[in-house]
Amino acid sequence: MTRQPKLDQVFQFIDQTTVQLQKILRVSYHEALSENILNILQQKTYVEDDFPTPEQVAQLDKEYQTLTLQDYPLTVVKQAVELAIVKAQKVDQTEVNLLMTPDAIGVITALIVAEIFPQKTRKPLKVVDPCMGSGNLLLTVAQQLQTSTDLTFNLTGLDNNDSLLALATAYMQAIQQPVDLYQQDAVAYWLQHDYDLALADLPVGYYPVDENVVNFKTRAEEGHSYAHHLIIEQTMKNIRPGGIGLFVVPAQVFQTEQAPILAKWMVESVYLQAVLSLPSSLFTSAAATKSIIVLQRHGEQAQQAPEVLIGEIDDLNKSTSLVTLRNQLRDWSQKTFNWGTNND
């Protein structure tokens, strides 16, 4: 499939100027991309400690004057930035846990959120992504819902990686999406609480600092604990009573040696409302497949679903898949969630 000319034009401009800046600054493509996007938006080169040199600044500024990002549709800008992030991942050989969440997962997540929360909700929903990364999951969900529903949001992103947060900052400014970003370990104490909704594509692996998690119910009895278990627990602690958490997790999350600990915590602290396997076509191998789990914190009108929604999401490129999924979600949501009548 050929890309649209405007998309090619914006991506090639971002890519070419990023490569120029990368050579000048002698940094990774990823780091150059973050700074370059902000330069493109300002049409001016950022200078620190007299670097880049005046001659280099003059050449870059001349380039930046040839394209105004604001002249292009936000959908085109978003796609172009995504393509640049994908190139950064290839050029810099980014580790798996730091890879951008594909748009398809964001679209599926948005479908789930749209069915969980009533359209008559008038207050902005407080939404957090505790593993923000480059921000694509949170921003894709927000854009999808702003287009297809009447829901409004206050968005927050957390991440302990300053380089990824810098990229997320540039990305959100490029597509004009306000997000409050904080650099912090998602397992540590959160300064903000009472979110209505959490979304996260969780990093998978062991959390290295055992003394930080002695009070966690999902910690391992011996050795390091799974970071994704700990982040789920900490996130749900900071969701308001009755609030929702949607987590992208390994498909084998309930089949590991630490799974019984996670399951025990879930029974005691949250309602497991859905487990949905994502389309296998989104992943490079069976071992890499993921699922979305939907959790609800106890309290308010929250109750366990009469029947946990368990299933496999079909390839959304099939014409009937989207309609089938939406109907399944709507039926499940109506039986599961009781938001009462006061949505102010």
The computed structural class is alpha/beta
Radius of gyration: 21 Å
Individual helix count:
10
Provide mean pLDDT, rounded: 94
* Residues in β-strands, percent: 15-25%
CATH topology of the largest domain: Rossmann fold
Give a count of the beta strands, DSSP E runs of length 2 or more: 10
Shape: globular
Distance between the termini: 45 Å
> What is the strand arrangement across the widest sheet?
3-2-1-4-7-9-8-10
Biggest sheet details:
8 strands, mixed
Low-confidence stretches: none
Q: What are the secondary-structure elements, in order, as H or E?
A: HHHHHEHEHEEEEHEHEEEH
Amount of helix: 40-55%
How would you classify the quaternary structure?
single chain
**The CATH superfamily title of the largest domain:** Vaccinia Virus protein VP39
The CATH class designation of the largest domain is Alpha Beta
Annotated CATH architecture of the largest domain: 3-Layer(aba) Sandwich
InterPro entries: DNA_methylase_A-5 (IPR003356), DNA_Protect_Modify (IPR052933), SAM-dependent_MTases_sf (IPR029063), YtxK-like_N (IPR048375)
Organism: Bombilactobacillus apium
Keywords: Methyltransferase, Transferase
Domain DNA methylase adenine-specific: 101-329
